[in-house]
Amino acid sequence: MKNLNLAEMLDNVRARTPLVHNITNYVTVNDCANILLACGGSPIMSDDAGDVEDITSICGGLNINIGTLNARTIPAMYLAGKRANELEHPVLLDPVGAGASRLRTETAAGLLDALKLSVIRGNISEIKALAQGSATTKGVDADEADQLNAANQDSVIAFAKGLAEKTGAVIAITGATDVITDGERVCLIRNGHPMMSRITGTGCMLSAMTTAYVVANPERPFEAVCAAVCAMGLCGEIAHARLSAADGNSSYRNYIIDAVYNLTGAQLEEGAKYECL
Amino acid sequence: MKNLNLAEMLDNVRARTPLVHNITNYVTVNDCANILLACGGSPIMSDDAGDVEDITSICGGLNINIGTLNARTIPAMYLAGKRANELEHPVLLDPVGAGASRLRTETAAGLLDALKLSVIRGNISEIKALAQGSATTKGVDADEADQLNAANQDSVIAFAKGLAEKTGAVIAITGATDVITDGERVCLIRNGHPMMSRITGTGCMLSAMTTAYVVANPERPFEAVCAAVCAMGLCGEIAHARLSAADGNSSYRNYIIDAVYNLTGAQLEEGAKYECL
Amino acid sequence: MKNLNLAEMLDNVRARTPLVHNITNYVTVNDCANILLACGGSPIMSDDAGDVEDITSICGGLNINIGTLNARTIPAMYLAGKRANELEHPVLLDPVGAGASRLRTETAAGLLDALKLSVIRGNISEIKALAQGSATTKGVDADEADQLNAANQDSVIAFAKGLAEKTGAVIAITGATDVITDGERVCLIRNGHPMMSRITGTGCMLSAMTTAYVVANPERPFEAVCAAVCAMGLCGEIAHARLSAADGNSSYRNYIIDAVYNLTGAQLEEGAKYECL
Fold first, then answer.
1. Which of A146, A242, A272, C19 has its CA 20 to 30 A from that of B235?
2. Could you tell me if A247 lies within 8 Å of chain C, comparing CB atoms?
3. Average pLDDT over residues A200-224
4. Of C103, C245, C251, the CB nearest to B48
5. Which positions ≥6 away from B169 have C-beta within 8 Å?
6. Contact between A46 and B68 using a beta-carbon 8 Å cutoff
7. Backbone angles phi, psi at A154, to 5 degrees
């Protein structure tokens, strides 16, 4: 059953040029900025406690990514998040590496406690760590034991719905199959290509782009998240089809951003592989 | 009237390999380093208060970009700037986002007060905020209301000349039409392509490259700035002509740096679109 | 005499997916992450004192690069290095810019004193500065006066062997000809292309990849380092052959990472140009 207005979500991003404040890691920050521009948004990066409140005030939404969190930027995440909450701007949390260190797990959990989040996006290991305050994760990738499969699909969906209900956020657990839920509706998405895991930052880029989609579609955050996740996966497929024999992960990264730049609403509707439960 | 020796400016960069110290943002720092190498310069990045004085001492010039300024790096900007001034090295200031937050506006204005600047490069909103201590800017892009047009061209030029006279710096206000002035001479440049605004960092890259041009042409900073601005815009045009249907902003970024790498003095003279008033 | 099992070294990286903790500079960090993924490893970046001990504990090895060292990250380098030593994880030091500033020279020397290093990789000027506590280096590139040539080859080799004996680390002095030694064995490598010096971060990328090779081949660090250095140089050659007339250093960077992604053990054995003394 295809009943989401994905094209409209995408078109609204292009029409409204949402300005997104990013507090993100320095590994993939350039790709995040370029994918925001590619999808039709506008990025601004600012992570100093003395700067973030002013910056988030002029933006439409906030993307918090803890990938290279540190003692200087963690307070800025709280300050920016609180100001964004006051202004009723959407806030997305990407708990990169939650479960891999105490600082990451505690910071992610602390932000979840302190802030009203609109979206939480991560892999299954990170989201579990965030929800449970502990996990055993292998670095910043999801553990194999955590991956969604036929055996655990029902329990993963129940877990995601519970977290959505508890937090009020749209939960996006991404992997080979993505699970998106706002606590009531559930969407499973099967776009993407395995080679996307061989590029650094596909998750970070998706979080940045998802924030733009949610800002541009304020009445429909669930559909907006689904659209962004489908778009990223579909662009991974389009970019993969473009690879020559000599191309590898660096060209693939460029082609994915290029594909986002060129993606139309019609293409998105045509190529999206999702199932609403 | 084409009376600037652009080719000579470019050739001097390639011949002299100017070493440029950059205190810049982490969003576009990699592109800044690669464009410095592409144009014939050599980059070094250092932003710690304990490191910058030594580093700037072995360089030929300093590029200060406040794009992701923070409590740790702001003091380093002052220290490096003062040392560079003592050594009579050219210093360029790129006031990214001045007007978008108090910290950015005050830091940019503070650096302008404390340092002898050779070049100030930014969009019109940033330069106005820098000069006036306030502005209403939409993030890091220029406001539409500020864009140069037939109606405001004379007042923008007068503003730029006044700032150049007051500061002693070459002022480069970049946009669809760029205004360059040293207070006496004025050059309008019309190279470039609108798609350049869909890449993060074209401004930052231009600032880095401009610093290299000014270091390599110490007797003629005005011409050096004009040459760098023409070169960047022209490379935006060359790169745009190279785009395939599947290419987007990520490939475009690569092609622009590639074009800078391959640009010759003859190409620059041929393709530059400028007018000296 | 070709007697190193380079293919086996490479295959072990692909088979074992070594997780590498990087404390590195923000200039080239994205390229370091992508080349780690390209070669078959898995990257994680973390540089906060409160985070690095947990992170390095779940990794297989640690890559310390001082390219944009600062007051916040230097203590994290020591903490991570000590924990990695306790866990007997390989630690690589890349003393970027040692000799160019007191902070860099002292930090590199301090890390060398405090830590048991498995590999030290840098250009000749950096390694001399590290060993001697002083040097005159031009930024982050090797001085011409220091470059390996027929006249100084014996003395450079003797110097490298001495440093290897003193530190217990494999020493990798890279340049047009690379010198690798563990104090007993010496390997000279002549892969690569001069254009690699026109890209920022080829050294940083090599250090990251070398760490992955050493982690995946714990019994044979010397061969692992030789294999990584040959692989990087060979990929520089493969990528150069792919350049079109319009390509420059930005595409070259992408092609090098792509070549690492596609490199096979057979290709490496075939293309490696080394000599064991």
1. A242
2. yes
3. 98
4. C103
5. B93, B117, B118, B119, B120, B163
6. yes
7. -65, -40
Q: A186 vs A153, A167, A172, A227, C216, CA distance in Å?
A: 12, 16, 10, 13, 41
Candidates A200, A202, A244, A247, partner chain C, best to mutate (most C CBs within 10 A) = A200
Of A65, A26, A63, A27, residue with least CA distance to A43: A63
Residue B119, beta-bridge partner list:
B92, B170
**Domains of chain A and CATH, by start:** 6-276 (3.40.1190.20)
Spacing of C-alpha B73 from chain mean position? 20
Token pair in block for residue C112: 């060398």
Whether C102 contacts C73, CB under 8 Å: no
- How many Cβ atoms are within 10 Å of B219's Cβ, its own excluded? 6
- Give the per-residue pLDDT at B135: 46
Tell me, yes or no, if A134 comes closer than 8 A to chain C by beta carbon: no
Q: What is the ipTM of this complex?
A: 0.95
B26 contacts in chain A (CB < 8 Å): 26, 29, 45
Mean pLDDT of chain B: 95
Under a CB-based contact definition with an 8 Å cutoff, are residues A96 and A63 in contact?
Answer: no
Q: Cβ neighbours of residue C268 under 8 Å, at least 6 residues apart?
A: C6, C7, C10, C227, C230, C231, C234
- For an interface test with C, the pick among A24, A27, A30, A102 (most C C-beta atoms closer than 10 Å) comes out as A27
List chains adjacent to chain B, taking adjacency as at least 3 C-beta pairs closer than 8 Å. A, C
Q: Is B274 helix (H, G, I), strand (E, B) or coil?
A: strand
CB spacing of A30 vs C33 below 8 angstroms: no
**pLDDT at residue number A138:** 54
Q: Which amino acid, C194?
A: P
Record the pTM.
Answer: 0.96
Q: Are C252 and C243 in contact (CB under 8 A)?
A: yes
| B39/C contact by beta carbon, under 8 A | no
Q: Please answer yes or no on whether C247 and B257 come within 8 Å at the CB atom.
A: no
Using a CB–CB cutoff of 8 Å, tell me whether A139 touches chain C.
yes
| Digit-coded pLDDT (tens) for A52-85 | 999 999 999 999 999 999 999 999 999 999 999 9
**pLDDT value for B3:** 81
Helix (H, G, I), strand (E, B) or coil at B69: coil
Q: In sequence order, what are the residues at sequence separation of 6 or more whose Cβ sits closer than 8 angstroms to the Cβ of residue B254?
A: A254, C250, C251, C254
